[in-house]
Amino acid sequence: MLQWLQAHWLDLLYAIIVIVVALFISTILERAAKRALLTRVSKSTADNVAKLIRYSILVVAVLIALTSIGVDVTGALIAGGFLGIVIGFAAQASISNFISGLLLLLERPFKIGDFIHVGDTIGMVVEIGILSTTIVTWDGVKVRIPSSQLFNSSFRNYTASRARLVSVEVQIPYSASIEKAVEAIESKLREQWYVLEEPRPMVFAKSFGGDGVVLEVRAWTPGSTWLMLYSSLPRLVKSALDEVGIEIPFPQRVVWFASPLKTEGGAK
């Protein structure tokens, strides 16, 4: 043993230096990865990814250290390769989700708090993991979506949009002034802080309805306040018309009675 140490002390010193440097670098990268990922994914996911990075560096360092002191690791690498192939076939879906999750973290198409639309599911992102993403739908149901499905399919991010359109139709009586109604509604919309000035709100006569003139109201808002405008636009339109004394007409029907037929001799 003493002779081996005397003959290979430089190799042993090199192996120790490799492991010490790997410990130092892996610790720094682990902390940096945590800080970078915490703004994108949940804390548990960030911890797991950071640990994976650290242990991968340490495994490579150990293999380099063992090789430097003359240990043959070829058999271990071959065995590990076969084991990796077997595990790969057994966990193809998980590996696909893992790779897709890493690519999504790099691309960052959405973040926690965004409202997204994937397939038939619409909701708010509450957790972003490596293997899956969890969203809460409008009715409060949690849905787990695999990362591979997110990466390989198209989806909509409503929150990320800089401006989104909300429109609604309303009827006014034929006797009412269209110009007066348009001015009242546009003025009301410009008073709301979440309605964008550019593109500006638009109100115009669209068609003639059965009960009055149909007006279409269009307003733009940032993606983060879309739901606020969507839920308040009908109320704002109704309030604007009430302030200028224009009522939304009730359904109207005109009934015609046929004249009774005269019989012979003038009898009805």
Describe this entry's structure for a reader.
The structure is a single chain. The chain is of the alpha+beta class and 268 residues long. The chain folds into three domains: 7-90, Helix Hairpins (Orthogonal Bundle), CATH 1.10.287; 109-157, SH3 type barrels (Roll), CATH 2.30.30; 164-243, Alpha-Beta Plaits (2-Layer Sandwich). It has helices spanning 2-37, 43-68, 74-90, 92-107, 147-152, 178-190, 226-243, and strands at 115-118, 121-128, 132-137, 142-146, 155-157, 164-172, 202-208, 213-221. The protein has a five-stranded antiparallel sheet. A three-stranded antiparallel sheet has the order 6-8-7, covered by helices on one side. Helix 1 (2-37) runs antiparallel to helix 2 (43-68) and helix 6 packs across helix 7 (226-243). The chain starts with a helix and ends in a 25-residue tail after the last helix.
